[in-house]
Amino acid sequence: MTGGVGSADASGDRSVAAGGTIGSVNTGDFVTQVERATLLPPEALTVSPAGLVHLPERTQLFVGRAHELALLDKGVGTRAIQVICGLGGIGKSTLAARWAADRVADHAVVWWITAETPAELDAGLADLARAMQPGVVGVLPEDALRERALQWLSTHDGWLLVLDNVSAPADLRPLLARVGGGRIVVTSRRATGWQDIARTVVLDVLGPEEAAQLFTGVCAGIEGDGLDELCAELGYLPLALKQAAAYCAEAGITPRTYLGLLAEYPGEMFAATTEGGEAARTLARVWQVTLDRLADTPLSVVVLRTIAWWAPEGISRRLLESLGTPLEVTEAVRRLAAHSMITLRDGELTVHRLVQAVVRAEAGEVTEEARERAAELLFVHASHPDVGVERQMAVHAEALAGHMDPADDTELTATLFQLAGVTLGMGTAVGRALPLCERALRSLRRLHGPDHPETLHAMQSLALTLDMGGDELAAAELLTAALAGWLRGDEPDESSMLLTRAHLARVLRKSEPGRADELFRENADECHRILGPRHPQTIFARYELLDPMSGGEVDMAALEVLVADAERASPEDPLLRDTIRQSLLLELSGRDETERALALAAECVEESRGRYGDEDSRTLLSRLFEVNVLQQGGQEERARALRTVLLNDCVRAIGEESELTRMVREMQL
């Protein structure tokens, strides 16, 4: 090349002449043109990953989790991928960080990436490339950096990636399609969808001792004074424990004081942070992210807001059936479970009590609507013939009462609490039943006055519960007042008046037998006059006159007539018929008429199974009578075998607390 500036001469094959500035020059027989090429400095080609570690600051507040740490150690295979999943705030990231920190020596590279979105995952990979090759910083664009990290991961092993807070399994598929022999630990609130790509480690809450240890690790010097109660109230959830402990330490208050503040100001306490604390990591915020993700399935949020008012466990899907079509309800439940907001076990839902508390603490009409919906759903199932649903209804109604101010009670909720109290009182839970019945009576008196039919029914329910608890005097006083209330009415409810008189007579049977007999005779005459001879209430009044449960001599001929009359009762009353036939069974067994008693017992069991199902309380009771007849008839071995099966069915169907379960358990065989 010759000549001055701006001019040039060239000679020879494939020679180039240039004058001034040129953009690009191609020569040769085969030419590849590259535009926008980046010239890398020599040091950019050096990769130095050995000992590269990027993890969150190691926390000293780590308790328990030995089992989960061991599960993470069991990751095997050329590419081991494990997912730590669970409810937000349960300690997934803390567990992953502790495990990774303890395994640094086992890996050439240990790298933590916040990967809530695909963009965050890509950014974390780009950061890894920068750390491995500092020479590329400021030279390569983000996508090229991400690609260099993927290339290195795909051609090396002995590395560990921790991907924190991944939203969905699909977000990882591009990465997993490229990487080679390393370890990946994922944390996610997503509980499902991992089966094809990873093994899951499901994280649960801490145990009571571990929870107390975590609390005192944050708030030192706390011993007793409500610590165990607060840990239980917080459901042993690590995030809640840390939040409460930090607040107690900074405010200089005890756990018991914090409990009081939490009860009085739940919304404010769930959102409270200490000075410099991270607002996004409070209970009020940590689950909002998940709720936002569920916005495209509105019924999921409706379900969660509804079950927030019930007991946290034993929530039957049947209680939710009316909220939508079967598919809509199933999909709502599925999505809540997929995002760890609930767990599913044996067809029932379980929700953490703090999730419930945070949802209830939200202000606004939507919360009040959810409370009303929760009450209405329980009320619909309150008289369901399935004893399992009935028992669940009572437990959930008890929880609802605990979450409501009595001043907000309506006629529906007061009646619901009354029904729940009676149901609980039928078992051994009289101590739980009495507050519900007392509250129902106070609320109905406030709403309707002292002589309103609903108030008088509530007086009867409370009286029966008091009687079951052994307070016969208080029960008799209430029933006497209720009977006077029925008589004072402008249009007396004669049927209710008859029932109240009968209840009063039963309560007085032990303390004032003479007055009780007089009331029974009066009631039988009044039933015959008002209701007619074939009415179930009339037949039952005649049955009570026989006093078959007193242990005295019973007129067998009269009892046989009552059995026949109960079969022809109008309207039909299977419970009346079963009750009188069971009395006949006992009399036959006591008179050594075993063969007839056994035939009648078997007939009662089969009829109950056909009418109510095998695990209904009425069927279980008929089976108990059959065991008794077998025992009294000398068939001890068969009686023991049937009793064992019956006890298992009682525990499963009606629970350990049921009076019937207790009776079966205490049988001497």
From TrEMBL:
Pfam families (UniProt xref): TPR_12
Gene3D superfamilies according to UniProt: P-loop containing nucleotide triphosphate hydrolases, Tetratricopeptide repeat domain
Source species taxonomy: Bacteria, Bacillati, Actinomycetota, Actinomycetes, Kitasatosporales
Lineage: superkingdom: Bacteria
Name of this protein: Tetratricopeptide repeat protein
InterPro entries: P-loop_NTPase, TPR-like_helical_dom_sf
Signal peptide residues on this chain, from the entry's feature table: none
